[in-house]
Amino acid sequence: MSSVLRPALSLIVLMTLITGVAYPLVVTGVAQVAFPDQANGSLVYDDHEKVRGSELIAQNFTGEEWFHPRPSAGAYATVASGASNLAPSNPALATRVTEDTAKEKVDSQGPVPLNLLTTSASGLDPHLSPAAAEYQVSRIAAARNLPRESVQKLVADNTQTSLIGPPVVNVLDLNLSLDRLPSGKAVN
């Protein structure tokens, strides 16, 4: 029996050390050297070097003076991330979308973009389409007493394009840029 048990236990210990200790340490070390910003959470700092969030996770901004992100089924908490799983025929989804439409609606601007009404698959998508950010410009300009053109320029300056996929705007970066304007208010 010991002729079978000893090699089996030795193999378990060896594989645990390789796959549970050595491999994670090597991968972490390589990531810290090659991609330190991404390995540490893609954190966003303000002008005072205070962490304001991550480029990868949405935050809830409320108030008329801020760009609002996509809705989140998990209240922007990473532990509860995920879609709402409500079917299109579910009355709760229709109620939520109707309420969000009433909150985001700007009378002179037509329908609210879907990015401002629908959650992403994770519920934590930090990006909006440029159209969804543009939709909010008038409200923010009025709330902050800024020229509409200044806020539009911020949206254009914060629009990210890549070789694949549509252009996007990171809401946290956009709000931090907005906060740097002379009459901007403090980040919440």
UniProtKB/TrEMBL annotation:
The keyword Transmembrane helix applies. Keywords: ATP-binding, Cell membrane, Ion transport, Membrane, Nucleotide-binding, Potassium, Potassium transport, Transmembrane, Transmembrane helix, Transport. It is found in: Cell membrane. GO terms for cellular component: plasma membrane. Pfam families: KdpC. One of its GO terms (molecular function) is ATP binding. It is a single-pass membrane protein. PANTHER family: POTASSIUM-TRANSPORTING ATPASE C CHAIN, POTASSIUM-TRANSPORTING ATPASE KDPC SUBUNIT. Belongs to the KdpC family. Part of the high-affinity ATP-driven potassium transport (or Kdp) system, which catalyzes the hydrolysis of ATP coupled with the electrogenic transport of potassium into the cytoplasm. This subunit acts as a catalytic chaperone that increases the ATP-binding affinity of the ATP-hydrolyzing subunit KdpB by the formation of a transient KdpB/KdpC/ATP ternary complex. The system is composed of three essential subunits: KdpA, KdpB and KdpC. This is Potassium-transporting ATPase KdpC subunit. The gene is kdpC.
